[in-house]
Amino acid sequence: MSLIVMKFGGSSVGSTERMQRVARRIADYKEAGHRVAVVVSAMGDTTDDLIDQSKLLNSNPPAREMDMLLTTGEQISVALLSMAIHQIGHTAISLTGWQAGIRTEAVHGKARITDIDPNRIFRAFEEGHAVIVAGFQGMSVDGEITTLGRGGSDTTAVALAAAVNADVCEIYTDVDGVYSTDPRIVKCARKLNEISYDEMLELANLGAAVLHPRAVEYAKQYNVRLVVRSSFTQNEGTSVKEETVMEQGVTVRGIAYDKNVARISILGVEDIPGVLAKVFGALASNEINVDIIVQSGVQDGKADFSFTVSLGDKDKAIAVVESIRGEVPFREVNSEEDLVKVSIVGAGMVSNPGVAAKMFDVISNLGISIKLVSTSEIRVSCVIAAEPVQDVVRALHTAYGLDTAEQAFVGGPQDRR
Amino acid sequence: MSLIVMKFGGSSVGSTERMQRVARRIADYKEAGHRVAVVVSAMGDTTDDLIDQSKLLNSNPPAREMDMLLTTGEQISVALLSMAIHQIGHTAISLTGWQAGIRTEAVHGKARITDIDPNRIFRAFEEGHAVIVAGFQGMSVDGEITTLGRGGSDTTAVALAAAVNADVCEIYTDVDGVYSTDPRIVKCARKLNEISYDEMLELANLGAAVLHPRAVEYAKQYNVRLVVRSSFTQNEGTSVKEETVMEQGVTVRGIAYDKNVARISILGVEDIPGVLAKVFGALASNEINVDIIVQSGVQDGKADFSFTVSLGDKDKAIAVVESIRGEVPFREVNSEEDLVKVSIVGAGMVSNPGVAAKMFDVISNLGISIKLVSTSEIRVSCVIAAEPVQDVVRALHTAYGLDTAEQAFVGGPQDRR
């Protein structure tokens, strides 16, 4: 008998039938003698519908009231799922974030979980209930309802798994697991049986939407074993954990791309000490996440440097840069959109020289110029023009030997007829 | 500068436009320098829609989970209303029942408010906010989300008004105020400028849907001044308070009718001591509200008695009666539906003999037989066949001189041409 945390996203509970299927899965675990805590997101389009409603009444709704509004989506989900479980003869109780003891920072829209008091949940286990917890939400010390921001339900599930010391945290989604790249654009993408936290973290950060980076970080930090699997099949899924066995000859584990990227360049910056600190300190204190940072050499006491932010933060970032012109003199600031960041990820590449070179080679052979490059021990990212991203990802997928057998066949001689 | 509690029902906030109109009303009060706390119900059909959703997943949903589900309706309302207020340049914060300090019994679906801690609300006043509170809900001592049952939002508003010692509690509805009878069936019904708690209580209990009885009781108990008025007009409305000035020659203030009534008769009951206590104790402990109770004289040590319950409780009540046959021997129990309880209400009738007689007279002149009668100091109720209730109400309305001048005109000579 184990303690299992299951997390179901909005599409997994997006209809009565799906809700019933989820209830059945939970019942199966209970019948197998497991203790089950379930984290659920808002059903299907509920959150978007609520946002639309709010826009009709306020062009720029206060974050506090948005949290108050949006948290109802998950509350509806947990209540309905609990009812569905009762209907098939099992007992369950639903809990809001605050009832589940989830405490967060006193920030609205993107709070971080500070701690979880699991007593209410353990009491429910003792009473024999499946515990259904509203994802994405919590309560601040001053009794305000908060939300965790995008991917919040994944984070809730992992944090909960850590708090109750679960044997495994299963993240149910609409895909079979983590793929070597986006299966929608590369038919021969392969499902990975297992992947390390670090690799998953890179992939997650790079826009492989299957798992939220913050959740992966949390899992790594508390060593929570994650399994990403489909809520529509019984397939094994992908296991995310500390140690992974390298597959023969695989140096690159996956290829990710992210279109939500804008480049900002600051040109002719006075090369006074602490310039970078000033610029990126100002951006950070305005809660703008900066990704790639590149600085070219200094000429005549002037430096140029570029960095990337998400599209949504672009204008704000430029405003911040302008606002510190007094402290940090510079000639001009410019920006660029319609970009994509393509990345290769794999713990294998550390010990394999030439992995990055091959990437640059593949991209330039497609006649595409690389605007920014950033590397880590297990990742190489290139920012290029947004189109044709498919061609680039496919070419890299093939170049790094990730194509599945089927594809070899599809691409094989018989195919040419 | 006063402290005003306003309550808006579901239809008053049933659309974007209506929500905006309510926000405007609140802003007007704030601009006049008043402190405002607002209690809101779920928008339009939200509650019914949620109930429909639940039925798809559970034929008999647990009350606890229903509370968890339904309380989201009010939470959505308060968040949206708060946003609408911000949009027109005023500040507001929304609060769930538990955030507003509303504590209830640990019962689901029909909890009573045990106490209200107004500190959070006063803090919000000091911060200059309009405070928007979710009606119909609260929290039990063990941190469970509860609902107050039907009419809960009225009760929330009155209890809140008492807790913050408000100058007035305005109940906004889709009618102009309290009428001498149902304006839908009697065109010449008159709006009452004021009415006493007791009279209002009788009318409320008798199915004048405008105010929930529990709310009126609460208002009487804590001497909260109520005003019932329309959310669509600026009309004065009806003031509900302790002392009211009698209008000249008006002994009967209003005429109410209630079709939600079933008669149950127990025949040939052994007239042993404590029989009534046993029967109605058993019904009460099964949470069945009994209205009229009539016992005919005892013959040969056997008594017959009848009582009325709401239609929904009829079968349950019969089952309870059957279940105590052992302790309370009787010959048979029978029941009747398709009834209506017609009542005349007015503090004036105490000092005016013959008021009840006139009622019986009017009804019998219509050739209708009276099945049960019950009287109080300020009320006479007759249970009769459901049809033709309109004729009965109209005839009584005229007989007690309640018809408005307009009607006298409409009914006057010019009209005959």
UniProtKB/TrEMBL annotation, chains A, B:
As its record notes, the protein acts as a catalyst of:
L-aspartate + ATP = 4-phospho-L-aspartate + ADP
Annotated TM spans: none
Pinpoint the ACT domain residues. Answer: 264-347
Which leading EC class covers this enzyme? Answer: transferase
Instruction: Provide any one GO MF term from the record.
Output: aspartate kinase activity
The protein's annotated pathway: Amino-acid biosynthesis; L-threonine biosynthesis; L-threonine from L-aspartate: step 1/5; Amino-acid biosynthesis; L-lysine biosynthesis via DAP pathway; (S)-tetrahydrodipicolinate from L-aspartate: step 1/4; Amino-acid biosynthesis; L-methionine biosynthesis via de novo pathway; L-homoserine from L-aspartate: step 1/3
What's a Pfam family this protein contains? ACT
Q: Which domain of life is it from?
A: Bacteria
InterPro entries xrefs: AceGlu_kinase-like_sf (IPR036393), ACT-like_dom_sf (IPR045865), ACT_Aspartokinase (IPR054352), ACT_dom (IPR002912), AKii-LysC-BS (IPR041740), Asp/Glu/Uridylate_kinase (IPR001048), Asp_kin_monofn (IPR005260), Asp_kinase (IPR001341)
Q: Which UniProt keywords apply?
A: Amino-acid biosynthesis, ATP-binding, Diaminopimelate biosynthesis, Kinase, Lysine biosynthesis, Nucleotide-binding, Transferase
State its Enzyme Commission number(s).
Answer: 2.7.2.4
Q: Please give the family membership noted in the entry.
A: Belongs to the aspartokinase family.
Q: What is this protein called?
A: Aspartokinase
Task: Report the source organism.
Answer: Paenibacillus mendelii
